[in-house]
Amino acid sequence: MNDDTFNIQTRKFLKKVGINAQREIEAAVRSALDSGKLSGNEKLSARVILEVGEVDLKVTIEDDIALE
């Protein structure tokens, strides 16, 4: 295994995940605000499940996202 290649590819994947996740969260929150489902001062519970099947990795990452 080439450690540099592995590191670069892992970072590239995580950047893609981060950018896409932020875009989706922002769109969903804006839509919920527009529809009145959210008032804008909530704390949202977020969860990501990261899986890499070939190495039997399954990790859950949880945190809150405050809107105010």
Overall description:
Helix content is 49%, strand content 29%. It is an alpha+beta fold and 68 residues long. The chain has one domain. A two-stranded antiparallel ribbon has the order 1-2. The longest helix has 33 residues, at 3-35. The mean pLDDT is 98.
- As for the number of domains, it is 1
How many beta-strand runs?
2
Overall average residue pLDDT: 98
Helix content: 40-55%
Strand content range: 25-35%
List the helices and strands and how they pair.
Layout: H1 3-35, E1 43-52, E2 57-66
Supply database-style keywords.
single chain; 68 residues; alpha+beta; two-stranded antiparallel ribbon; 2 strands; 49% helix
Task: Give a brief description.
The protein is of the alpha+beta class and 68 residues long. The protein is 49% helix and 29% strand. It is elongated, with a radius of gyration of 16 Å.
